[in-house]
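user: At home tonight, take the chain set out below, taking as long as you need, and be ready to discuss the fold:
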Amino acid sequence: MNQKRLGVLTDGVFALAAILLAIGLKVPIIISNSSQALWMELEKTWPILFVFIMSLAFLFAYWRAHRYMFSIISKGSTTTFANLNGLFLLAIMIMPYSASILAKHYNEFLAMMLYGLNIVIVGSVLLWMRRYWAKGIGDDDLNSNKSRHHSGNVRIILPVFASILSFIISFWSGASAVIFLTITAVFNLHPASSMIVHRFMDHWFSDDEESVTNS
């Protein structure tokens, strides 16, 4: 399987998904030319803007993780990897659709569930791809890029857990769930995000180990 052509196809699908997200941005229509009327219309469209920022941030994080895999693969991709990549791209192309539903019906639990499930599927397939990819690159390449590999896994897993948590939050407030997921998506792009998550997890796990030792 030609690795370069597969990479070009993937980049094209990500670009198309980003364009479809941007198409969902609409300029508010106001009857009277006043700042108050414009502000009232902008208040109605904030979910669309938040969902756009959130989805674009997730897309960029997934694209970056995918490009990282392709930068290390030295040989042509196998058929299995190409099939997994196709499943991954399918989930990516559904994101503009689920994002559009969430933007218009953010107060509905079903809308958040559909979008969150989309994120969970994308993250799960990408993790599946990374596990398959890690088996084929060799221990030397994996060890030389161990820190980047772990950081990439954190950036993939974090949106999955955040999406599951947003399901729970949406029971009380759909707006709060959207805001929470948007903050998570933007935070996930920060270079230090994986290090912060690692420190947070080490803190909690170290406390658990100490309590078990003391008992």
Observations:
- The first helix runs from residue 3 to 23.
